[in-house]
User: What shape does this take?
Amino acid sequence: MTEIIKTEFPKTALNRKASDVYEAATRGPVSLSEHGTSRFVLMSRRIFDERFARADTRRAVHIDEMSDAEADTLVSALEASIADD
Assistant: This one.
């Protein structure tokens, strides 16, 4: 899951060469350094989502597909939610 950072820019490049930094970030994570030390990592949203975003585990289920225990749990949770209002 860890991507090796192959491109590094000084932090000041964001002001002077922003288009170069953004272009490099489309290819992979970019390290931004300050005084020779890596301080920040910039990457495209696509790369972030592929590497770090959690998949949505929610799913729709018809009541007929639930076991009695699952249906009872659902009804209890709904009743408790209504009672809290």
Summary: The radius of gyration is 23 Å.
